[in-house]
Amino acid sequence: TQGALWGGRFASGPSDALAALSVSTHFDWVLAPYDLRASAAHTLVLHRAGLLTDDQRDGLLTGIAGLAADVADGSFGPAPDDEDVHAALERGLIERLGPDLGGRLRAGRSRNDQVATLLRMWLRDAVRRTAALVADLVDALLSQADTHPLAAMPGRTHLQHAQPVLLAHHLQAHGWALLRDVGRMRDLDARADASPYGSGALAGTSLGLDPALVAAELGFARPVENSIDGTSSRDLAAEAAWVLAMTAVDVSRLAEEVVVWTTHEFSFARLDDAWATGSSIMPQKKNPDIAELARGKSGRLIGNLAGLLATLKGLPLAYNRDLQEDKEPVVDSVAQLSLVLPAMAGMVATMRFDTARMAALAPAGFSLATDVAEWLVREGVPFRVAHEVAGACVQVCEQRGIELHELTDDDLAALSPHLRPDVRRVLDVDGAIASRDAVGGTAPVRVQEQREALRAAVAEA
Ligand code: ARG
Predict the structure, then answer these.
(1) Catalytic site residue from 26, 75, 158, 206
(2) Among candidate residues 412, 418, 370, the one with its CA nearest the CA of residue 393
(3) Which residue among 315, 326, 405, 457 is the one 20 to 30 A from 439 at the CA level?
(4) C-alpha–C-alpha distance, residues 388 and 385, integer Å
(5) CA 112 / ligand 1 centre spacing (Å)
(6) DSSP label of 315
(7) Which of helix, strand or coil describes residue 330?
(8) What are the DSSP calls for 397-410, one per residue?
(9) CATH number of 369-427: 3.40.50.300, 1.10.40.30, 3.30.200.20, 3.50.30.30?
């Protein structure tokens, strides 16, 4: 029954309202496999310290292995009276082994160091899984870039036409942002490489147990340096919530563009039927629900981060029960991304771009005006003057409803003595794109280099 972990000094069990508030098995059960691995490691350490005989060690290890199998196949689960995953698994072990043997395992550990360690283990696995899904989305972007290595599109700032760029350049830009998110997940994984197990409730253990041995058994590089910090800090959970929220925000920016690109007005891209939805009333509709859910869920992940930080902000050292609130936000953020990322990857991989339309619109909005100004600079004109002259060209074109390349030789001469007819050479989308050939730029040769670098980076990330 609940209270079994601390019955000694209590005359009664917990009230129903306390029990209902306290219970966490509905969300901390994700830690069960990690709890059992840690219990096996703890068994070895107790034995090493002379606190278990060989037989007791073997009996406990057999019991833990059997319980782990039952947890894995679902035949053992939390009971209504179990407060949390740790209590439930101790009950399960005692049911198998009896209280004398099953009850030995709790020596020298506390749920405080247990849960801090298990959460780190869970987080490390979760960010590795998530990083692989992010890499799949980058792969989808790369496959579209491979399909359209030379397609031009209007590059935008302020959502206004700015300068023509390659579609591949634009898609890869999302890829680089997502690659940094993968890097952040790797950083977190490395920073979480210290085990709090052995910290006890806060002060460490008096039983001669070796935290380094448990750490090694559980795949950590080392034990934490400070047992108070080890049991009471949750910055790594908050960091995970941030990395996950940042990833969701980066995905959301891509999603927003998909929403815009698939509108009738833009018509830059069409979604594959398997990755779009219809309307229950409007027969013609084809909706980008994946992109919208990705965009919407990013708000939820930001909320998970904000909630966790708010939980942490007033907590004195060391452990406080508030910390139980650490799990739901990060578990939810991982779960949401595990839905969003494969759907986004499939949607991106199967999108069809109208590259003819995108290329036709690339020079619209006078997006080659900068090329006029830069041509003038190459002619020796100061940029301040060149900018004025190119701006005047735009003004004349706008008044007459024509494009820059439609200005006559006389128009050009009237606008500025520097504007020789030769300037028309730069009023060409492919030429403008090819001319931006410094590192990072939109010239096809540079974009291909970037693509190869991104592909290599994501493959080794
Ligand atoms: N379930 C708790 C948590 O998730 C761990 C238990 C610690 N409880 C305690 N009273 N010290 O944080």
Answers:
(1) 158
(2) 412
(3) 405
(4) 5
(5) 6
(6) P
(7) helix
(8) HHHHT--GGG--HH
(9) 1.10.40.30
Nearest to 199 by CA among 176, 183, 220, 215: 215
Going by alpha carbons, the residue nearest to atom 10 of ligand 1 is 321
What SS3 state is found at 131? helix
Average pLDDT of the segment spanning 391-406: 95
Among the listed residues 22, 279, 338, 405, the single catalytic one is: 279
CB 187 within 8 A of CB 161: no
Report which of 382, 294, 395, 387 is spatially closest to residue 340, judged by C-alpha positions: 294
For the chain, the structural domain boundaries read: 7-107, 112-206+221-355, 369-427
Cα end-to-end span (Å), the chain: 47
The angle formed by the CA atoms of residues 30, 89 and 305, to the nearest 5 degrees, is: 30
Three-state secondary structure call for residue 437 = coil
Give the residue-averaged pLDDT of 358-369: 95
Residue 3, pLDDT above cutoff 60:
no
- pLDDT, one tens digit per residue, over 299-334 is 999 999 999 999 999 999 999 999 999 999 999 999
pLDDT 10s digits, 426-444? 999 999 999 999 999 999 9
Helix or strand or coil: residue 194? strand
Q: In this structure, are residues 428 and 399 in contact, taking their beta carbons and an 8 Å threshold?
A: no
Who contacts 54 (Cβ-Cβ below 8 Å, separation ≥6)?
47
Is 266 buried (19+), middle (13-18) or exposed (0-12) by CB count in 10 A? Answer: middle
ipTM (interface predicted TM): 0.96
Task: With CA atoms as reference, report the closest residue to 78 among 120, 123, 35, 24.
Answer: 24
CA dihedral 225, 229, 234, 236 (to 10 degrees): -20
Count of beta carbons in the 10 Å neighbourhood of residue 17? 8
- The chain-wide mean pLDDT, for the chain, equals 96
pLDDT, tens digit, 9 for 90 and up, residues 232-256? 999 999 999 999 999 999 999 999 9
The amino acid at residue 381 is V
CB of 84 sitting under 6 A from ligand 1: yes
- Backbone Cα Rg of the chain: 31
- Contact (CB, 8 A) for 337 and 301: yes
Distances from the Cα of 410 to the Cα of 357, 406, 421, 424, angstroms: 31, 11, 9, 13
CATH architecture of the domain with residue range 112-206+221-355: Up-down Bundle (1.20)
Ligand 1 atom at shortest distance from the alpha carbon of 201: 11
Whole-model pTM over 0.90: yes
